[in-house]
Amino acid sequence: MKRENVIFSIIFGLIAILSIFLIQPFISYIILAAVLTYTLFPVYSLIRKKTNQPRLSSVISITLVVVLLIIPSFLVAQRLAQEVTGAFSNFELSTVQRLGDYLSGLMGNRVDFQGIIDSFFNEVRESIFEIAPNVIGSIMELVLGLFIMFFVMYYAFRDGEHILLRIKQMLPLETSLKEKLFHEVRTVTQGVLYGQ
Fold this sequence. Notes:
The protein contains 6 helices and no strands. The protein is mainly α. The radius of gyration is 28 Å and the shape is elongated. The model has no long low-confidence stretch (mean pLDDT 81).
């Protein structure tokens, strides 16, 4: 083998490995995009028949995904966060202090529950400040992941039929086996998504 070919192969291999590491955190978003595209492809087809514009139909289909799936998920998460915050704000320290006084009377020595609770909340506050950079990083990863998901969905809606045709052509199987394979994949996917 020529020296140039070896160097090219090594560089290509390193770039391929680096690409895998870069894409790895977003594989779940890509798979979710494929599943959502497959699930909503009949809706996309209906919209495309009415608009006769694949790009616009793809954008409308993705907008439906955002409206029907993403926004309700964020609203539920926000409501859950409000409930947790409300539980902490409704937490009356005087009740705990009275309970502490009662227990201190039973045990015979004074326990400073107010100090323990203050210390606990200070530790929680410090922990929140420590994990804040991780939360911000997670939010950025989520935003980037959603962008990748919508990007994949756009092209999967728009060019999905052509992509499937290319995959069928590239498979090293007989035509009857290709059709059987795609039929089985379709059946299993529909069974998982829609129930049996």
